[in-house]
Amino acid sequence: xxxxxxxxxxxxxxxxxxxxxxxxxxxxxxxxxxxxxxxxxxxxxxxxxxxxxxxxxxxxxxxxxxxxxxxxxxxxxxxxxxxxxxxxxxxxxxxxxxxxxxxxxxxxxxxxxxxxxxxxxxxxxxxxxxxxxxxxxxxxxxxxxxxxxxxxxxxxxxxxxxxxxxxxxxxxxxxxxxxxxxxxxxxxxxxxxxxxxxxxxxxx
Length: 204
Known about the structure:
6 strands; six-stranded parallel β-sheet; 41% helix; alpha/beta
């Protein structure tokens, strides 16, 4: 492992359950008919999600609700995530954050957790990509910014779209069963773990 590339929600911060509740609520207000909607969109950027809705009024209302939700949410760290990041940093392993979150959410995140920003050499958020996961663009940009080949990186993901993006980039992929059951990640990752306490940096 020459570099480590991390998703945010469900990997570094324990927020996916909150987002599931939020998007389940949106699906009840503006039904799309997509099965398991909140799960299906995980890893997608907001513009891609909004493209599923027909009217500008729906999109504007959903955006307003989401921004209000994010502006007032707490960002609890996943148990063991900060310790793992510190271990990589102490051992000189470059680290990048690759997230579908927008800049406004990232500002809120780092305001609450300023120490987290120092854990990453590169941050790729929604403002820096034109293609959402499962497209590998975000991970390829992160590897390039770190000066390494994607094939020499390890990607840490929890969503199906994110795992697909990691694999498509050519990186090794570790799937964290923090959002979805481990069985649903089978065949999607090189290694599946239940949490950070099961990950040893020396083995990657």
